């Protein structure tokens, strides 16, 4: 356990050219915990020099140090037999891991001789690099032919849709767990999307870090106590469902003290869950995979995603077999998951079974504005269209929660605290946004909550630097 976990954001051990510096937030130089940390580090590094800087400078140096160390680690991991094109792609993977990018987009436009590399960061696409279209073609063909261990179909064809999985040796060198490949033809080239899969099993975030309200966290824990039934996480692509699913899995394993078995069936396995036994779908056959997992003595089952009727029926059968089943579904709302299941082909009598659906969770991810440079109401109000200003003044009037003068707005220029300069290409990205947080709706299937008066709609004031919509909890009674 890290004895200094509560102060680690205010200190940094920085090593450069053989010299070790103890970088410390100057506002905390008299903090007893900081002084104790300095003494301990001096024992480890007798020639280390303390250096007191502003918190903003410390964060910037931490990021630079992290980028440098990752670049060194990635370079050291390169296989001597890898080609220059393969190494370039691994560097893109490493950059995606550092920036928390969920997807890498490669768009080849042969009519203008250009290939653009973009990454989705905090939900928005940022241009990372630009190549010639010939370089882009070489990158994509190398990626599919020599870096994917699964290719569907096996022969590269840029005039058709193809899918694949990047070999683990390449993505692990970049600090990722995995990456999925998908391409399709365009009017003048090819469009490739790589979904990156992080390996955060040793640092699984909490529901609080995701943005869940305390009341929602308590309710999620209650739902996960059921021994059987279906818990569905809903939302559009990129809404954080898979991350929350891993958090739920970790919560369930910890609650059972890792003395119960969690088996997963995923297509493909998306991220390591410490303590779970994870398996891929067998040759795309959900029926076969579901039958195998049910016969393998599970206590709980995680099914990757309901994309078609076979996956849906597999989840229902597993839940009816007496297991707790965790799954995700694309739906616009929590309540909308039920008619969505019917449209996909499930009998409504199965869906209406009180022992089937134990809880529905819907979520979205919204940007967290930089608290240092986000714009105030006084700065932005004169620039807003009259209709927008009138709308905000009329509806942002919830006592204790929202008032126009408390609103903050995105600064597209950003500042030193949120801007990042990519060493790989020199481009500046991530202006005015520092991350994303979830807004959540939970619908539990627990009539007892109605009798005990469990809170209904829940609200809390927006935190500094972000605007958080009301998160709802609404029991089905």
Topology:
Elements: E1 11-16, E2 19-25, H1 32-44, E3 49-53, H2 55-77, H3 84-99, E4 103-109, E5 114-121, E6 124-132, H4 133-147, E7 148-152, E8 162-166, H5 168-173, E9 176-186, E10 189-198, H6 207-210, H7 214-223, E11 229-234, H8 241-255, E12 262-266, E13 277-280, H9 286-294, E14 300-303, H10 309-320, E15 324-329, H11 337-344, H12 348-351, E16 357-369, E17 375-376, H13 377-380, H14 386-395, E18 408-409, E19 420-421, E20 428-429, E21 433-444, H15 447-452, E22 472-473
Parallel strand pairs: 2-3, 11-15, 11-16, 12-13, 12-14, 14-15, 21-22
Antiparallel strand pairs: 1-2, 4-5, 4-10, 5-6, 7-8, 8-9, 9-10, 16-21, 17-18, 19-20
Helix pairs in contact: 2-3, 3-4, 9-10
Which terms would index this structure?
477 residues; alpha/beta; seven-stranded antiparallel beta sheet; 22 strands; globular; disordered C terminus
Q: Could you name the ranges where pLDDT drops below 50 across 5 or more consecutive residues?
A: 448-477
Rough shape? Answer: globular
Roughly how much helix do the residues carry, as a percent range? 25-40%
Based on helices, strands and strand pairing, what is the structural class? alpha/beta
Give the percentage of residues in beta strands: 25-35%
User: What value does the average pLDDT take?
Assistant: 85
Largest sheet: 8 strands, mixed
Over all CA atoms, what is the radius of gyration? 25 Å
- Treating each run of at least 4 consecutive H or I residues as one helix, how many helices? 15
Our measurement of the CA-to-CA distance between the termini, rounded to an integer number of angstroms, reads 44 Å
Strand order within the widest sheet?
13-12-14-15-11-16-21-22
Tally of DSSP β-strands: 22
